[in-house]
């Protein structure tokens, strides 16, 4: 058993006024974003003395903010958030000089994705080799995939497709695999409390021939509500972890893999 001497714990006052729902590191682990029921998002930077310094805080939505996610740094300093207010939002950081001649980090709302009619429960950027794409899932069971045709202009997003899962969805994860024989894949989890039927995890795969996303698999053995879902970061594994009443690990074999 580990003792308190086996790790270093850092605790700092986030200044959030309500429950923090999500926390997300950037690609390098030097920046941290948090979101809360206080409708705000905060961004923190790790300084040279390994202390976290808050560099930005702003009201991002008109209701609880469920999730926050960083885009790959290749696309700049970009965040996506989603909320109970039925929207997902795209934010880009700019650095300006304030009247005191000090540099100030400002996060600008570049786009609002407003197609959902219910709470948007999760939002995730795609792996960078797919370009600047983002997927959302909503309480009405709808998954939506968006793309910024021009990564330089984050005000323009087109919805590539929406897929209906028929039961509430609460979490989503992209498979990071970039092998040429692996089609893009997304896993979605449901927090539906009806435990009499299975099927709380769905796998979507992109059909390159038809140029559309298809639901290819429903994992029927899961009957308890799912709270989170994540593909392993190593793209060689195709391993999916599912947090429910128990922890489940699945090894997925893409449909076009021999």
TrEMBL record:
Keyword terms: Kinetochore, Lysosome, Nucleus, Protein transport, Repeat, Transport, WD repeat
SMART domains in alphabetical order: WD40
Residues of the signal peptide: none
Keyword Transport in record: yes
SUPFAM superfamilies named in the record: WD40 repeat-like
BP GO annotations: cellular response to amino acid starvation; positive regulation of TORC1 signaling; protein transport
Domain of life per record: Eukaryota
Location in or out of the cell: Chromosome, Centromere, Kinetochore; Lysosome; Nucleus envelope
Cellular component aspect of the GO annotation: kinetochore; lysosome; nuclear pore outer ring; Seh1-associated complex
Repeat positions for WD: 13-54
InterPro entries xref list: Sec13/Seh1_fam (IPR037363), WD40/YVTN_repeat-like_dom_sf (IPR015943), WD40_repeat_CS (IPR019775), WD40_repeat_dom_sf (IPR036322), WD40_rpt (IPR001680)
MF-aspect GO terms: structural molecule activity
Protein purpose: Component of the Nup107-160 subcomplex of the nuclear pore complex (NPC). The Nup107-160 subcomplex is required for the assembly of a functional NPC. The Nup107-160 subcomplex is also required for normal kinetochore microtubule attachment, mitotic progression and chromosome segregation. This subunit plays a role in recruitment of the Nup107-160 subcomplex to the kinetochore.
Family per record: Belongs to the WD repeat SEC13 family.
Protein name: Uncharacterized protein
Protein's organism: Ciona savignyi (Pacific transparent sea squirt)
Classification of source organism: Eukaryota, Metazoa, Chordata, Tunicata, Ascidiacea
